[in-house]
Amino acid sequence: MPRALSFVTLDVFTSAPLEGNQLAVFIDAKGLTDPEMQAIAREMNLSESTFIFRRDSAVERERGVRVRIFTVDEELPFAGHPTLGTAMVLREESPGSNTIYLDLNVGKIPVEFTRRDGLPFGQMTQRDPEFGQKHSREDVARVTGLSLGDIADDVPIQTVSTGNAFAMVPLKSLAVLQKLAPAWSQMNTYLSKTDAKFFYFVSRQASEPEAKLQARMIFSRGEDPATGSAAGPCAAWAVENGIIAPDEEVLVLQGVEIHRTSRIYVSAGKIDNKIVNIRVGGHAIEVTRGELSF
């Protein structure tokens, strides 16, 4: 007999359906093998799919709810919009819970819930950032198809990670961000020799007045509508370089250029010159419920 797996899909980092970043959440993944989860993620064909493995309540209180995250190609140790979206699904099962703890491959990640604009609003605390390699503007311009003048020179291009490593690339203007059209093969050839897995392109001009930053993340399968695991490092980098103040919450827009606008709220603290308390938040909207049989 085929197995039927219940799942939910959500649009994450948006309060409006059909925007933001899509996610599939499989509510009970008990018994699934790694190859089966990878095949299911390929079948869903979204940026990520998550798989929930429920455990004894005492274990979950101590360690969190076990969740694994897969792209169509690989398992990830951490990703932002799958963390927020999966926590939203778990909160619906326990509506009195203000904090959901996920046990991810990077460890225990809390997601706190409040209400904004009449809807549940989740905010995750990411790991403290690790600051890595600084990249030359000349090298990055060469592999991204940008001119040297397109890249800002007042703040560094630097790798930052809270679980996934992104090289933050500051661009001179929103116009530069909007015209961005790099070839992944060229970027990947360069990135494979560095400590970063992806570039995160950031403009300090945004297409909406309430936003402080606008970003794009281009990878092998196209463009990501929202990258929560890059938004946290971006907040750390922005505080480190004086772009935003410590503990100032700002709105980052992403996905605008591909008509999947995502609204990501970020902040980072600073104690004794160390960046701490990386917070990334937003809304998530359920779009479908169904069963997958295989």
Question: What attributes does this structure have?
Answer:
single chain; Diaminopimelate Epimerase, Chain A, domain 1; two-stranded antiparallel sheet; 2 domains; globular; 7 helices; alpha+beta; 294 residues
Write the SSE topology.
Blueprint: E1 4-12, E2 21-26, H1 34-44, E3 48-53, H2 57-63, E4 65-70, E5 75-76, H3 80-93, E6 99-104, E7 107-116, E8 119-126, E9 130-135, H4 137-144, E10 157-161, E11 165-171, H5 174-179, H6 184-191, E12 198-203, E13 213-216, E14 218-219, E15 222-223, H7 228-240, E16 250-254, E17 262-271, E18 274-282, E19 284-293
Parallel strand pairs: 2-3, 4-6, 11-12, 13-16
Antiparallel strand pairs: 1-2, 1-19, 3-4, 4-5, 6-7, 7-8, 8-18, 9-10, 10-11, 12-13, 14-15, 16-17, 17-18
Q: Would you mind describing this structure in some detail?
A:
- The chain is of the alpha+beta class and 294 residues long.
- It has 2 domains: 4-125 and 283-293, Diaminopimelate Epimerase, Chain A, domain 1, CATH 3.10.310.10; 130-280, Diaminopimelate Epimerase, Chain A, domain 1 (Roll).
- The chain is built from 7 helices and 19 strands.
- It has helices at 34-44, 57-63, 80-93, 137-144, 174-179, 184-191, 228-240, and strands at 4-12, 21-26, 48-53, 65-70, 75-76, 99-104, 107-116, 119-126, 130-135, 157-161, 165-171, 198-203, 213-216, 218-219, 222-223, 250-254, 262-271, 274-282, 284-293.
- The chain has a 17-stranded mixed beta sheet that branches. It has a two-stranded antiparallel ribbon with strand order 14-15.
- Helix 4 runs antiparallel to helix 6 (184-191).
- The radius of gyration is 19 Å and the shape is globular.
- The relative contact order is 0.18.
